[in-house]
Amino acid sequence: MNKEIPHSDYDAHPETVDDDELNDYLAGIAEEIGWIVICFNSLEDSIANFLREMMLRDPYQDERLDVFLAEMGYMAKARALMHLYGQAVAHGAVHLPEGEVVELEKDLSLAATIRNGYAHADWSGLRADAYIKVKTRSSRSGILHRYKRIDKETADADITYIVSVGNRLVSVHELVQDSIYQRTNATEAASRTLPVIKYPVSADAKPRPSRAYDEGREDTLNALLALGYGAEEAATALRNVPYGLSAREGIEVALRTLEADS
Q: What GO cellular-component annotations does this UniProt entry give (predicted)?
Protein backbone atom coordinates (compact mmCIF):
# COMPACT_ATOMS: atom_id res chain seq x y z
CA MET A 1 0.00 0.00 0.00
CA ASN A 2 1.33 3.45 -0.96
CA LYS A 3 0.74 6.79 0.74
CA GLU A 4 1.65 10.19 -0.67
CA ILE A 5 1.82 12.85 2.05
CA PRO A 6 2.67 16.58 1.79
CA HIS A 7 5.84 17.60 3.58
CA SER A 8 3.89 20.20 5.56
CA ASP A 9 1.39 17.66 6.93
CA TYR A 10 3.60 16.27 9.67
CA ASP A 11 0.73 14.73 11.60
CA ALA A 12 -0.10 12.45 8.66
CA HIS A 13 3.39 10.95 8.47
CA PRO A 14 3.78 7.54 10.15
CA GLU A 15 5.83 7.66 13.34
CA THR A 16 9.50 6.69 13.24
CA VAL A 17 10.32 3.44 15.05
CA ASP A 18 13.05 3.02 17.66
CA ASP A 19 16.51 1.62 16.88
CA ASP A 20 15.79 -1.91 18.14
CA GLU A 21 12.72 -2.29 15.94
CA LEU A 22 14.64 -0.83 12.99
CA ASN A 23 17.51 -3.30 13.41
CA ASP A 24 15.12 -6.26 13.68
CA TYR A 25 13.24 -5.11 10.58
CA LEU A 26 16.37 -4.65 8.46
CA ALA A 27 17.80 -7.99 9.56
CA GLY A 28 14.59 -9.69 8.46
CA ILE A 29 14.31 -8.07 5.03
CA ALA A 30 17.92 -7.46 3.95
CA GLU A 31 18.03 -10.67 1.90
CA GLU A 32 14.92 -9.70 -0.09
CA ILE A 33 16.36 -6.23 -0.80
CA GLY A 34 19.46 -7.92 -2.20
CA TRP A 35 17.38 -10.20 -4.42
CA ILE A 36 15.49 -7.22 -5.82
CA VAL A 37 18.79 -5.72 -6.99
CA ILE A 38 20.11 -9.04 -8.32
CA CYS A 39 16.95 -9.87 -10.29
CA PHE A 40 16.65 -6.37 -11.72
CA ASN A 41 20.30 -6.31 -12.80
CA SER A 42 19.75 -9.66 -14.52
CA LEU A 43 16.74 -8.18 -16.34
CA GLU A 44 18.80 -5.18 -17.50
CA ASP A 45 21.56 -7.49 -18.73
CA SER A 46 18.99 -9.48 -20.73
CA ILE A 47 17.74 -6.29 -22.40
CA ALA A 48 21.29 -5.33 -23.43
CA ASN A 49 22.01 -8.83 -24.78
CA PHE A 50 18.76 -8.87 -26.75
CA LEU A 51 19.60 -5.47 -28.26
CA ARG A 52 22.90 -6.93 -29.45
CA GLU A 53 21.12 -9.90 -31.02
CA MET A 54 18.58 -7.65 -32.76
CA MET A 55 21.14 -5.22 -34.17
CA LEU A 56 24.43 -7.04 -34.82
CA ARG A 57 25.35 -9.84 -37.20
CA ASP A 58 27.69 -11.23 -34.55
CA PRO A 59 26.45 -10.03 -31.14
CA TYR A 60 29.24 -11.76 -29.22
CA GLN A 61 32.23 -10.55 -31.26
CA ASP A 62 31.17 -7.10 -32.46
CA GLU A 63 31.61 -4.62 -29.58
CA ARG A 64 30.60 -1.43 -31.40
CA LEU A 65 27.10 -1.37 -29.87
CA ASP A 66 28.57 -1.43 -26.37
CA VAL A 67 29.87 2.10 -26.96
CA PHE A 68 26.23 3.23 -26.92
CA LEU A 69 24.85 0.71 -24.41
CA ALA A 70 27.39 1.86 -21.82
CA GLU A 71 25.93 5.39 -22.00
CA MET A 72 22.25 4.36 -22.00
CA GLY A 73 20.06 4.09 -18.94
CA TYR A 74 17.76 1.17 -18.27
CA MET A 75 14.58 2.66 -19.78
CA ALA A 76 16.41 3.96 -22.86
CA LYS A 77 17.58 0.41 -23.56
CA ALA A 78 14.15 -1.05 -22.81
CA ARG A 79 12.38 1.39 -25.16
CA ALA A 80 14.93 0.78 -27.91
CA LEU A 81 14.37 -2.96 -27.69
CA MET A 82 10.58 -2.57 -27.73
CA HIS A 83 10.86 -0.30 -30.80
CA LEU A 84 12.89 -2.95 -32.60
CA TYR A 85 10.26 -5.57 -31.77
CA GLY A 86 7.53 -3.20 -32.91
CA GLN A 87 9.27 -2.58 -36.22
CA ALA A 88 9.61 -6.32 -36.82
CA VAL A 89 5.87 -6.70 -36.17
CA ALA A 90 5.00 -3.72 -38.39
CA HIS A 91 7.00 -5.16 -41.29
CA GLY A 92 5.28 -8.53 -40.97
CA ALA A 93 8.40 -10.45 -40.01
CA VAL A 94 7.02 -11.29 -36.55
CA HIS A 95 3.54 -11.94 -35.17
CA LEU A 96 3.08 -11.17 -31.47
CA PRO A 97 -0.12 -11.07 -29.40
CA GLU A 98 -2.13 -7.88 -29.89
CA GLY A 99 -0.66 -5.09 -27.77
CA GLU A 100 2.20 -7.24 -26.48
CA VAL A 101 4.98 -4.74 -27.21
CA VAL A 102 3.10 -1.86 -25.53
CA GLU A 103 2.23 -3.91 -22.44
CA LEU A 104 5.71 -5.39 -22.14
CA GLU A 105 7.22 -1.90 -22.19
CA LYS A 106 4.86 -0.95 -19.34
CA ASP A 107 5.97 -4.03 -17.41
CA LEU A 108 9.64 -3.16 -17.89
CA SER A 109 8.94 0.37 -16.67
CA LEU A 110 7.07 -0.89 -13.61
CA ALA A 111 9.98 -3.20 -12.77
CA ALA A 112 12.27 -0.16 -12.78
CA THR A 113 9.88 1.79 -10.55
CA ILE A 114 9.80 -1.05 -8.03
CA ARG A 115 13.59 -1.47 -8.06
CA ASN A 116 14.18 2.26 -7.65
CA GLY A 117 11.87 2.29 -4.64
CA TYR A 118 14.13 -0.23 -2.92
CA ALA A 119 17.41 1.27 -4.14
CA HIS A 120 16.59 4.81 -2.99
CA ALA A 121 14.38 4.11 0.03
CA ASP A 122 15.09 5.77 3.36
CA TRP A 123 15.68 2.46 5.15
CA SER A 124 17.13 4.06 8.28
CA GLY A 125 13.95 6.11 8.63
CA LEU A 126 11.58 3.13 9.05
CA ARG A 127 8.10 4.23 10.10
CA ALA A 128 5.39 2.44 12.05
CA ASP A 129 3.68 -0.56 10.37
CA ALA A 130 6.66 -1.14 8.02
CA TYR A 131 6.21 2.08 6.02
CA ILE A 132 9.30 3.31 4.17
CA LYS A 133 9.77 6.60 2.34
CA VAL A 134 10.62 5.54 -1.23
CA LYS A 135 10.39 8.84 -3.10
CA THR A 136 10.32 12.59 -2.52
CA ARG A 137 9.12 14.83 -5.32
CA SER A 138 8.39 18.51 -5.83
CA SER A 139 5.08 19.78 -7.15
CA ARG A 140 3.38 23.14 -7.60
CA SER A 141 1.60 22.59 -4.29
CA GLY A 142 4.76 21.73 -2.35
CA ILE A 143 6.99 18.78 -1.45
CA LEU A 144 5.41 15.33 -1.42
CA HIS A 145 6.77 12.19 0.26
CA ARG A 146 5.69 8.78 -0.98
CA TYR A 147 5.59 5.97 1.56
CA LYS A 148 5.30 2.29 0.71
CA ARG A 149 4.52 -0.48 3.14
CA ILE A 150 7.28 -3.06 2.62
CA ASP A 151 7.16 -6.21 4.66
CA LYS A 152 8.67 -9.58 3.69
CA GLU A 153 5.52 -10.63 1.83
CA THR A 154 5.53 -7.43 -0.21
CA ALA A 155 9.22 -7.80 -1.06
CA ASP A 156 8.75 -11.44 -2.11
CA ALA A 157 5.87 -10.40 -4.41
CA ASP A 158 8.02 -7.67 -5.95
CA ILE A 159 10.84 -10.17 -6.57
CA THR A 160 8.38 -12.58 -8.19
CA TYR A 161 7.09 -9.81 -10.44
CA ILE A 162 10.54 -8.76 -11.68
CA VAL A 163 11.46 -12.40 -12.34
CA SER A 164 8.19 -12.98 -14.23
CA VAL A 165 8.84 -9.91 -16.40
CA GLY A 166 12.28 -11.32 -17.22
CA ASN A 167 10.79 -14.70 -18.12
CA ARG A 168 8.21 -13.00 -20.33
CA LEU A 169 10.86 -10.94 -22.08
CA VAL A 170 12.99 -14.02 -22.76
CA SER A 171 10.04 -15.87 -24.30
CA VAL A 172 9.01 -12.88 -26.44
CA HIS A 173 12.57 -12.44 -27.65
CA GLU A 174 12.86 -16.13 -28.54
CA LEU A 175 9.63 -15.87 -30.52
CA VAL A 176 10.87 -12.75 -32.33
CA GLN A 177 14.22 -14.34 -33.18
CA ASP A 178 12.69 -17.66 -34.24
CA SER A 179 10.28 -15.79 -36.53
CA ILE A 180 12.90 -13.50 -38.07
CA TYR A 181 15.28 -16.37 -38.81
CA GLN A 182 12.41 -18.70 -39.81
CA ARG A 183 13.20 -21.26 -37.13
CA THR A 184 9.47 -21.68 -36.55
CA ASN A 185 6.41 -21.69 -38.79
CA ALA A 186 3.36 -19.45 -38.43
CA THR A 187 1.27 -22.22 -36.86
CA GLU A 188 3.74 -22.98 -34.09
CA ALA A 189 4.40 -19.30 -33.45
CA ALA A 190 0.70 -18.49 -33.13
CA SER A 191 0.10 -21.29 -30.65
CA ARG A 192 3.16 -20.61 -28.48
CA THR A 193 2.19 -19.80 -24.89
CA LEU A 194 4.03 -16.98 -23.15
CA PRO A 195 4.69 -16.93 -19.38
CA VAL A 196 2.15 -15.10 -17.24
CA ILE A 197 3.13 -11.80 -15.60
CA LYS A 198 2.63 -12.05 -11.83
CA TYR A 199 1.62 -8.56 -10.75
CA PRO A 200 2.28 -7.47 -7.15
CA VAL A 201 -0.51 -5.85 -5.17
CA SER A 202 1.99 -3.29 -3.89
CA ALA A 203 2.52 -1.90 -7.39
CA ASP A 204 -1.09 -0.70 -7.65
CA ALA A 205 -1.27 -2.48 -11.00
CA LYS A 206 -4.31 -4.55 -11.90
CA PRO A 207 -3.52 -7.81 -13.68
CA ARG A 208 -4.46 -7.42 -17.32
CA PRO A 209 -6.72 -10.24 -18.58
CA SER A 210 -4.99 -10.11 -21.95
CA ARG A 211 -1.70 -10.99 -20.25
CA ALA A 212 -2.96 -14.19 -18.61
CA TYR A 213 -2.54 -16.77 -21.35
CA ASP A 214 -4.07 -20.21 -21.02
CA GLU A 215 -4.50 -23.28 -23.18
CA GLY A 216 -7.57 -21.88 -24.95
CA ARG A 217 -5.55 -20.59 -27.90
CA GLU A 218 -3.83 -23.89 -28.52
CA ASP A 219 -7.18 -25.72 -28.30
CA THR A 220 -8.71 -23.24 -30.75
CA LEU A 221 -5.89 -23.75 -33.22
CA ASN A 222 -6.15 -27.55 -32.99
CA ALA A 223 -9.91 -27.35 -33.52
CA LEU A 224 -9.48 -25.27 -36.68
CA LEU A 225 -6.95 -27.73 -38.05
CA ALA A 226 -9.28 -30.63 -37.24
CA LEU A 227 -12.06 -28.88 -39.18
CA GLY A 228 -9.88 -28.95 -42.27
CA TYR A 229 -8.52 -25.40 -42.37
CA GLY A 230 -4.96 -24.98 -43.58
CA ALA A 231 -2.16 -24.19 -41.15
CA GLU A 232 -1.56 -20.67 -42.47
CA GLU A 233 -5.29 -19.92 -42.62
CA ALA A 234 -5.84 -21.19 -39.08
CA ALA A 235 -2.86 -19.23 -37.73
CA THR A 236 -4.12 -16.03 -39.35
CA ALA A 237 -7.59 -16.49 -37.84
CA LEU A 238 -6.06 -17.22 -34.42
CA ARG A 239 -4.31 -13.85 -34.37
CA ASN A 240 -7.74 -12.19 -34.33
CA VAL A 241 -8.89 -14.17 -31.28
CA PRO A 242 -8.65 -12.17 -28.03
CA TYR A 243 -6.57 -13.75 -25.29
CA GLY A 244 -8.20 -15.14 -22.18
CA LEU A 245 -11.17 -16.73 -23.99
CA SER A 246 -12.23 -20.33 -23.51
CA ALA A 247 -11.63 -22.74 -26.38
CA ARG A 248 -15.31 -22.63 -27.34
CA GLU A 249 -15.38 -18.82 -27.41
CA GLY A 250 -12.12 -18.75 -29.34
CA ILE A 251 -13.43 -21.15 -31.96
CA GLU A 252 -16.56 -19.04 -32.45
CA VAL A 253 -14.50 -15.88 -32.97
CA ALA A 254 -12.07 -17.65 -35.32
CA LEU A 255 -14.89 -19.11 -37.43
CA ARG A 256 -16.54 -15.71 -37.76
CA THR A 257 -13.17 -14.28 -38.87
CA LEU A 258 -12.72 -17.03 -41.45
CA GLU A 259 -16.26 -16.54 -42.73
CA ALA A 260 -15.72 -12.79 -43.10
CA ASP A 261 -12.48 -13.36 -45.03
CA SER A 262 -13.98 -15.92 -47.41
A: Holliday junction helicase complex
